[in-house]
Structures are given as C-alpha cells and as structure tokens.
Write a structure and sequence with these properties.
By secondary structure, this protein is an alpha+beta fold. The protein has a single domain (about 10-120), classed as Roll (SH3 type barrels), CATH 2.30.30. Helices cover about 25% and strands about 25% of the residues. It has helices at about 45-55, 55-65, 100-105, 110-120, and strands spanning about 15, 20-35, 35-45, 75-80, 85, 90-95.
Length: about 120
C-alpha cells in the first residue's frame, strides 16, 4: 500500500543532496490522476520553480538577472523516485548531484511539452 503524505508539509522544504548540501526548495509538486488517486510524478525544486508556479518564468529570470541572483542549477525537475520523502521535514535526494545536470528543466516547459517537442523533431 502506498504511503499518504500531506503535500502542504513538503512544499517549501529544503531538499538535501546525499552529502547534505542544499539543492533548493520544493516549489511545486506535479501529480497525475490514477483512478481515484493522485500520484506524484515529479518535484520542481529551485528558485525558477517558484516563478514557474506563478507562470512568470521569463519575468522571474529577468528579475534575478537584474538583482544578479541568477546562477546555474536554479531549476530542477526531479522524478518522484529520486527524492526520499519518508521524512517530509527533511526530503533527501536519492541520486548523486551529478545526475541532476541531466534532469535540469526549462522553467517554462513541462515534461509533456518536452516529450511532444522531441517527438516532433524526429
């Protein structure tokens, strides 16, 4: 049986790497309907994820640039099975930080949009 976790306890929590380094905060949680349930598909972590949630990623990037706060690694789409949420107060990344480079997301584009775009380019 799957565990039930109150999502409001996860949003805003800092995600730690396996070595204990902060990689950002959970800003958004994506889920899909599975029968009568909703199942988590991915977590959006980092400062750009907050702007994505507000549908202002382009504006957010401009604001961060103006304030000189923009840096690499500001947005990650992390699959549900790559974060340990057994302790909702301290979510932990289950993969090495090096793997995150492959999971970096474009804050203005969902995974579904990426799949459609890559399928159209074939």
């Amino acid at each position: 049986m799957a565990a039930t976790i109150n999502l409001e306890r996860l949003v805003g929590r800092r995600v730690l790497s396996p070595r204990g380094k902060s990689i950002g905060y959970i800003e958004e949680i994506r889920a899909e309907k599975d029968g009568h349930d909703l199942v988590i598909t991915e977590f959006h972590v980092g400062i750009y994820a907050a702007f994505e949630r507000l549908s202002a990623s382009a504006i957010g990037a401009a604001v961060l640039d103006a304030l000189r706060l923009r840096r690499d690694g500001g947005f990650y789409r992390i699959p549900w099975d790559k974060i340990d949420i057994s302790d909702p107060m301290q979510p932990r990344l289950l993969c090495p930080m090096e793997d995150l480079a492959r999971m970096k997301g474009d804050p203005g584009q969902s995974q579904d949009q990426k799949k459609r775009k890559s399928g159209a380019n074939r």
